[in-house]
C-alpha cells in the first residue's frame, strides 16, 4: 500500500487535488482554441476516457474569447495554460477557468503576478506554478553548502514566496523535464520542501510508442514514493492516449481501480507448444466488448501457468492437444485445444449476465 505524502487540498472546480483525494488524471487539448466546436468535441472525448481536468492553451486575446465560450459548453473543469502574458491570465480567470497554469520562467514581474493572484482570489480559483526545464536552461546552481541544487527549485521557492506574501495558498506545484533523472530529482526536492499538491509529468516525452516507457518510469517511481497528486502523460498524438496510459500507470501500482477487463499473457518459452500469441489476440478482441473489470490470464503451459494465473478470474493454458480452464485458481474444465477459445468465451459471457 502506497503511503502518500501529506499535502494541502486545492480545488479546481469540483475536483479536489491533494493527498486526501485520489490522484487526478489530466490531459490537454491539442487543437487551436479558437476552433470551439472541435475543442468541445475533444474535451468531451477526454472526459469520457477518464480525464478529470483538461488544460487549454491561451496564447492570444482571441483564444481568451474562445475559451470563455468553451467553458460554458463542457462539464469538466478547464485549466488555462498561460505563458508570457498576465493579460491572458486575467482574461482566462474572468472567462471561467477552474485553474490556471503560470510559468515562472516567463512571467516574472511581481506586479503582474500580484494582479493575477488578486484576480484568482476574487474568483476563488487555483493556480499551478508550473516550471519547465525548457524555460530555465541553467539547470543547477551551487548553494552555500556546496550542494548542486536544481535551479528550477530556487525559481519555484521564489515564486511561492510571492504567493504566500499575498496570502494565496491555493497552489499546485510542478517541475518538468524531458529527462527522467532530473524529473525525479526535482520533484523529490519540492516534495521535501513544500506541502502543496504536486502535478507530475515528463514533458516533451515524444510519440506514444517512445513516451510510454520514460513517462511510466518517471511518474510511476514518484507515485510509488508517495509523491504526486495529479498527473499528465505528455505525448505527441491523440490526447485520449494520454488518459489511457495514465490510467494504466495508476492501476499498475494500485492507485486506480479500473472498470475495464485486464488480460495477462505468458511471455512463452520452449515449453509452449501452441499458438498462444494468436489465441491471446483473439481474447483481447473479445474483451473489448466486456463491461466489467474481469481479469483473464492466457498461460503457455501447465508447468507454471496455473500457479501464475491463480489470482485471475479466469485462466487458460494448454498442453499437447488439450486445453484447461481455471476459475479463481481452480481447474473447472478440460477441453480439446481446438475448443478452448469457445469454452473460454462461454465462461467470460457468464460474468456479463
Give the overall shape, derived from the CA principal axes: elongated
What is the helical fraction, as a range of percent?
25-40%
User: What distance lies between the first and last C-alpha atoms, to the nearest angstrom?
Assistant: 32 Å
Looking at CATH, the homologous superfamily of the largest domain is Dihydropteroate synthase-like
Provide the structure class: alpha/beta
The radius of gyration computed from the alpha-carbon positions, rounded to a whole number of angstroms, is 24 Å
Q: What distinguishing features does this structure have?
A:
single chain, 353 residues, alpha/beta, TIM Barrel, Sulfite Reductase Hemoprotein, domain 1, 2 domains
Give an account of the 3D structure:
The structure is a single chain. This protein folds into two domains: 10-252, Dihydropteroate synthase-like (TIM Barrel, Alpha-Beta Barrel), CATH 3.20.20.20; 262-352, Sulfite Reductase Hemoprotein, domain 1. Helix 1 crosses helix 2 and helix 2 (61-73) packs parallel to helix 3 (86-94). It is elongated and about 75 Å long. The longest helix has 17 residues, at 208-224. Helix 3 (86-94) links the parallel strand 5 and strand 6. It is built from eleven helices and 17 strands. It is an alpha/beta fold and 353 residues long. The strands form four sheets. An eight-stranded parallel beta sheet has the order 10-7-6-5-4-3-12-11. A five-stranded mixed beta sheet has the order 13-14-15-16-17, covered by helices on one side.
Amino acid at each position: 500500500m502506497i503511503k502518500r505524502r501529506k499535502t494541502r487540498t486545492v480545488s479546481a472546480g469540483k475536483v479536489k487535488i491533494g493527498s486526501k483525494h485520489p490522484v487526478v488524471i489530466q490531459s490537454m487539448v491539442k487543437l487551436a482554441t479558437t476552433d470551439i466546436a472541435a475543442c468541445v468535441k475533444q474535451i468531451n472525448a477526454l472526459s469520457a476516457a477518464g480525464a478529470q481536468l483538461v488544460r487549454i492553451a491561451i496564447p492570444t486575446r482571441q483564444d481568451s474569447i474562445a475559451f470563455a465560450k468553451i467553458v460554458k459548453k463542457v462539464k469538466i473543469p478547464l485549466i488555462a495554460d498561460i505563458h508570457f502574458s498576465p493579460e491572458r491570465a486575467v482574461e482566462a480567470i474572468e472567462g471561467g477557468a477552474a485553474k490556471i497554469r503560470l510559468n515562472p520562467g516567463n512571467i516574472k514581474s511581481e506586479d503582474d503576478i500580484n494582479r493575477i493572484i488578486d484576480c484568482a482570489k476574487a474568483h476563488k480559483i487555483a493556480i499551478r506554478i508550473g516550471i519547465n526545464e525548457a524555460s530555465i536552461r541553467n539547470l543547477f546552481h551551487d548553494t552555500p553548502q556546496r550542494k548542486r541544487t536544481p535551479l528550477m527549485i530556487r525559481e519555484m521557492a521564489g515564486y511561492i514566496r510571492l504567493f504566500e506574501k499575498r496570502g494565496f495558498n491555493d497552489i499546485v506545484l510542478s517541475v518538468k523535464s524531458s529527462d527522467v533523472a532530473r524529473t525525479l530529482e526535482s520533484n523529490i526536492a519540492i516534495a521535501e520542501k513544500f506541502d502543496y499538491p504536486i502535478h507530475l509529468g515528463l514533458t516533451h516525452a515524444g510519440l506514444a510508442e517512445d513516451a510510454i516507457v520514460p513517462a511510466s518510469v518517471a511518474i510511476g517511481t514518484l507515485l510509488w514514493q508517495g509523491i504526486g497528486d495529479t498527473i499528465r502523460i505528455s505525448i505527441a498524438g491523440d490526447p485520449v492516449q494520454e488518459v489511457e496510459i495514465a490510467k494504466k500507470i495508476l492501476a499498475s501500482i494500485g492507485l486506480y481501480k479500473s472498470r475495464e477487463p485486464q488480460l495477462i499473457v505468458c511471455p512463452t518459452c520452449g515449453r509452449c507448444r501452441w499458438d498462444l500469441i494468436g489465441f491471446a489476440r483473439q481474447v483481447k478482441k473479445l474483451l473489448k466488448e466486456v463491461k466489467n473489470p474481469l481479469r483473464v490470464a492466457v498461460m503457455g503451459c501447465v508447468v507454471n501457468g496455473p500457479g501464475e494465473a491463480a489470482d485471475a478470474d479466469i485462466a487458460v493454458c494448454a498442453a499437447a492437444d488439450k486445453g484447461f480452464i481455471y476459475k479463481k485458481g481452480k481447474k473447472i474444465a478440460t477441453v480439446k485445444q481446438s475448443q478452448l477459445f469457445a469454452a473460454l468465451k462461454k465462461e467470460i459471457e457468464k460474468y456479463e449476465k
